Amino acid sequence: MDVTRVSTLIFVSFVLVTLGITFWANRRSSGARDFYAAGGTITAGQNGLAIAGDYLSAASFLGTIAVFFSLGGDGLFYVVGAVAGWPIAMFLVGERLRNLGRYTFADALSFRLADKPVRTLAAVSTLCLCTCYLIAQMVGAGTLVQVLFHIPYTYAVVLVGALMSVYVVFGGMIATTWIQIVKASLLLLTTAAMIVLVAHRFGSDPDALIATAAALKPDPAHFLGSGRLVSDPISAVSLALAFTLGPAGLPHVLMRFFTVKDGRSARRSLSLATFLIGIFQIMMIVLGYAAAALVPATGLSGGANMAAIHLAGALGGALLLGVVAAVTFATILAVVSGLTLTAASAVSHDLYNHVYRGGSATESAEIRVSRSAAIILGVLVMALAILFQHQNVGFLATLPLVVAASVNFPLLVLALHWRGFTTRGATAGGVVGLVLSVGLLLLTRKVWVDVLGHSHELFPYEYPTLFSLGTALVVGYLVSVTDRSARASRERQLFSSQLLLSERGS
User: Fold this and answer.
1) Tens-digit pLDDT profile for the chain (506 aa)?
2) Which of 86, 195, 259, 371 has the most crowded Cβ, counting Cβ within 10 A?
3) Predicted structure pTM score
4) What dihedral angle (degrees, nearest 10) is formed by the CA atoms of 256, 262, 264, 267?
């Protein structure tokens, strides 16, 4: 059976289904609440699937398997890290954020803090973070389509960018949510089917699978060990902090809390999402070692990023390869739609309506700005994806976690849980965290040398989270405790009413 024909058929089928969902959602969407938050009509179960779909991206599937395929035991860092942050998001952020906000997490920040400074900071952080995430997804999509259909990488990226803009511009949050639900269900089912085939090939003993994978490597002991993913303890701690604290600051996930009716539903959504993400990551361990055991290490079309796709071919031939490739493509389309909507909402709701227009913009004008921002962002991300073509998508997907852990996480946790936090502290700490996280990431070897072509890196560690998060927390605390302004006094007094509303709801 021809792989290209199978993949094309499934690709086209999925695109037609999702375009149908978009058309249906467009007819149901009648205002800003529908466009940004699906009218608050999504159930906890549906939202849990959608949150899992938002997080289980191409980087989670392609990138994690690629790390196991290339580095062996180091892939466990990605697996454990991908699950570790969700209990923190559930207990520290989820329910309180839903009770305080409407469309974006900046709504909760501005409950007692000054509106314009915190919204501007939150919007800029969201744009940086979503852009980083979108690059990872677009690189995965471009490589996938290039390998399967033998078309230039640039054309593949443009195709994905065009589809993502259509979903956001015409469907809004309703379409994005249902596309995520369909995609998460397909990804979990397809991954489970691959697990069954691996068990049929190697039996129920995972040691046999791991031993087979290690035996094919030049240095089996090194493959089974760790230490090649990050080369020093500081980078390891920084990556762990990004994985653990980043999910509680991801704006496209935080935005999903507003699609359910109340804080209890938001908490239940996160519980289900955490369970599904945990199950998925356990399956990634098996599939990662299976790729190392069954996929040739040299001459791999598309490089290590495509190890998962080639594993599907080794397990189930052209049919399974086509199905997995199509589901992966569906995964990318769904995630980039959610990210694009989040970034566009930051521009229209936070920057345009509240910062520029002082909250006086009409809903129709706000939605027009959001749709225009989605198109502009799509073009920008296409260009950046071409620049980052040869980077591992798993590495690219950790970059937004660094920004989220360094900016959004400290802002949210301090604003929601500390009476003494002030606008000056939030602004100073947030700006420092943003500048350091983005600036130091640009100076690392994988960006400054591998992408930009300089001779050596200017920042010696692979991830800067330890420095950017630590500095943001210290600066935010010191500026807040030394702030004696009248505004700061009012903000401290408002904490009691914020706390009551965040715990009880309206």
Assistant:
1) 566 676 677 777 777 777 777 777 666 655 555 555 555 667 888 888 888 877 777 667 877 888 888 888 778 877 887 788 778 877 788 778 777 766 677 888 888 898 889 889 988 888 888 888 888 778 877 777 777 777 888 888 888 777 777 766 666 667 777 777 888 888 889 999 999 999 988 887 888 888 888 887 777 777 777 766 777 889 889 988 998 898 888 887 777 777 777 777 878 888 888 899 889 989 999 998 898 888 887 767 767 778 888 898 889 887 888 788 878 777 777 777 777 777 888 888 788 888 888 877 787 787 788 888 888 888 888 888 887 776 666 667 778 889 999 999 999 899 989 999 999 999 999 999 999 999 998 898 888 887 777 888 889 988 899 999 999 999 999 999 999 999 999 999 999 988 888 777 65
2) 259
3) 0.79
4) 10
- At residue 69's C-alpha, the angle toward residues 65 and 70, to 5°, is 120
| Residue 206, helix vs strand vs coil | helix
> End-to-end distance of the chain based on CA atoms, in angstroms?
58
Task: State how far Cα 410 lies from the chain centre.
Answer: 18
For residues 78-94, one letter each, b for 16 or more C-beta atoms within 10 angstroms of the residue's C-beta and e for the rest, the string is bbebbbbbbebbbebbb
Sign of the torsion formed by the C-alpha atoms of 429, 396, 87 and 93? positive
Tokens of 435: 């500048």
- Token match 């973070």: residue? 129
Tell me how far apart the alpha carbons of residues 340 and 265 are, in angstroms, rounded to a whole number: 24
CA-angle at 350, arms to 398 and 273, nearest 5°: 45
CB atoms within 10 A of CB 372: 15
**Chain centre distance of CA 284:** 17
Q: Two tokens at 334?
A: 């769904």
Q: What angle, rounded to 10 degrees, do the helices at 115-149 and 363-387 form?
A: 50
- Find how far residue 273's CA is from the centre of its chain: 14
